[in-house]
Automatic annotation (TrEMBL):
TPR repeats lie at residues 9-42. The chain crosses the membrane at residues 152-169. It comes from Halotia branconii CENA392. It comes from the Bacteria. This is Tetratricopeptide repeat protein. Gene3D superfamilies: Tetratricopeptide repeat domain. Keywords: Membrane, TPR repeat, Transmembrane, Transmembrane helix.
């Protein structure tokens, strides 16, 4: 392997990792696949790139490809790589548990809400108990809310300053 191809592979690997960490899984898979193609599969760096590729496959929803690559990595010559591959394979093949709907939080589509800058929705008791009715949302007119500065922050900062000054003075 030439130094130029190693440099290209390392650059692709770093780009793929950054894409994965920022949630761009399809781009991460593309870069990691290209980096893997440039490296020797049995090298330490090649194994590391392919482990990242496994996690990128899983994040991109390509679980079968992730499992197949883990099966290959179980026979990798570097002990750390094959140990990590076995761990990942165990996780990937674990049965998927069903989560009760009470555990899930539904995120509403905010794009369907009308724009209204002068009022804010306040929910008094957002959780539903088994025997209670939920409270209706209450609208608060922001023009009626006291937003005048009460200078509390300045009083707190001065008190903190005096306390720190006293502690410094008393330590001498």
């Amino acid at each position: 392997m030439s130094a130029e191809s190693l440099e290209k592979a390392t650059a692709r690997y770093q780009t793929g990792r950054l894409a994965f960490e920022s949630g761009q899984y399809r781009e991460a898979v593309e870069n990691l696949e290209k980096a893997s193609a440039l490296l020797a599969r049995n090298s330490r760096l090649g194994g590391e790139v392919e482990l990242w590729l496994v996690t990128a496959y899983e994040a991109a929803g390509r679980t079968e490809e992730a499992i197949a690559l883990c099966q290959q990595l179980k026979r990798h010559p570097f002990a750390e790589t094959n140990k990590q591959a076995k761990r990942l394979l165990y996780i990937l093949q674990a049965p998927k548990l069903q989560r009760p709907s009470e555990w899930m939080t539904e995120i509403p589509d905010l794009g369907t809400l009308p724009d209204n800058e002068s009022k804010v929705r306040v929910t008094v008791n957002p959780r539903k108990s088994s025997g209670q009715k939920t409270a209706e949302p209450e609208f608060v007119d922001l023009s009626q809310v006291n937003t005048r500065d009460n200078r509390f922050i300045w009083v707190a900062l001065i008190a903190i300053g005096f306390t720190i000054s006293y502690l410094i003075w008393s330590s001498f």
